[in-house]
Design brief:
About 80% of the residues lie in helices and about 0% in strands. The chain contains 13 helices and no strands. Helix 5 (about 90-110) packs across helix 11 (about 260-295) and helix 8 (about 170-190) runs antiparallel to helix 9. The relative contact order is 0.12. The mean pLDDT is about 85.
């Protein structure tokens, strides 16, 4: 085949491939969000690249002009750099998972997440309201010594809100252990076929509502709300998500559909493990805020509540919008 015929036959594909490299390869995240792209489909690129590599070999064997060989070599090299570039570093992949993949996974499980939110919030509100009318109900769940300890932690004499002793770094470690153990237990309760996660989520809501209601009754509501406001967005949302993951695990046992229960547990367990990874990161952030910000009693209430409102807006926007570019690409 003469060089002019060779160019005429393949020129259009070379132009389309070069256009794809310029428009799509340089910024893959933006490219995924561009639903109006009408050029070469991403799924066709590997086939076109292999064909282009064969054409370069043919051009060399036939002794075509250096100009043509240089152009084809450049296209092949650029395509190779895109298709065979190394994966992003693990730290970058972790950030992408937390920012985009995790909120997408939460939205994909919206049914169990809303159920978990109701199971958590309704008992919380009911127990808080109940204690406003019957303060003695606090002793049905907590012994007097524990009630006295809660009051001491939020008394005006306490040097740090929400704690009786220990420096910030020590309490940071304690909060991580405590919060994550609650989240993992909530998720693992899903193996008890529906009863476990329902009781665990509701019990967490009742406990938080009773503590808040009791402290409000005894005149310690102000320090409690100033302490809890900062980290509540990450901590409470993480508890709800871990509860939703537990409910999904229970559904795999109770209603596996056309899957066997073993396969359903494996598949939904993997999704639950990914959710728990995001919950872990959320609870680490909550523990950091709780140890180094929430416990500071000298910060005015207006500042504490303003920061809390901003954090709630951030968490809700992140869960609602994170990874939307990937959804659009699909």
């Amino acid at each position: 085949m003469r060089q002019e015929q060779f160019i005429a036959r393949h020129q259009q594909e070379w132009v389309e491939f070069e256009r794809w490299l310029q428009a799509r390869a340089a910024h893959p995240r933006k490219a995924r969000a561009d639903i109006h792209w009408r050029g070469m489909a991403d799924i066709d690129v590997p086939v076109v690249y292999r064909r282009l590599a064969r054409q370069l070999g043919l051009a060399r064997r036939r002794g075509y002009s250096p100009h043509l060989l240089e152009r084809l070599q450049e296209l092949v090299q650029r395509g190779h750099d895109v298709l065979y570039r190394p994966p992003p570093p693990r730290w970058q992949r972790a950030i992408e998972f937390f920012i985009a993949d995790f909120p997408r996974l939460v939205r994909a499980e919206s049914g169990v997440m809303w159920a978990s939110a109701l199971l958590f919030l309704l008992p919380l509100l009911a127990s808080f309201v109940a204690l406003q009318f019957k303060p003695e109900l606090i002793h049905t769940l907590m012994p007097p010594q524990q009630v006295a300890q809660w009051e001491e932690m939020y008394s005006k004499a306490a040097q740090k809100l929400g704690r009786s002793s220990g420096d910030d770094l020590q309490m940071f470690g304690y909060y991580i252990f405590n919060n994550i153990s609650i989240g993992l237990r909530t998720y693992a309760s899903g193996l008890l076929a529906g009863i476990g996660p329902v009781l665990t989520i509701a019990f967490n809501g009742v406990m938080i509502g009773m503590v808040a209601g009791h402290l409000q009754n005894v005149g310690l509501g102000d320090p409690f709300w100033r302490f809890a406001a900062g980290h509540a967005s990450f901590e409470l949302t993480a508890i709800v998500i871990s509860g939703g993951a537990g409910l999904r695990l229970s559904l795999a046992l109770l209603a596996p559909g056309r899957r066997t229960r073993v396969n359903a547990l494996i598949e939904d367990g993997k999704r639950g493990a990914a959710l728990c990874l995001g919950v872990f990161l959320m609870l680490v952030i909550a523990a950091f805020i709780e140890a180094f910000w929430s416990s500071i009693g000298t910060i005015p209430a207006a500042v504490k509540y303003g920061v809390a409102a901003a954090l709630w807006a951030l968490v809700l926007a992140w869960l609602a919008l994170g990874g939307r570019d990937r959804d659009a690409a699909r």
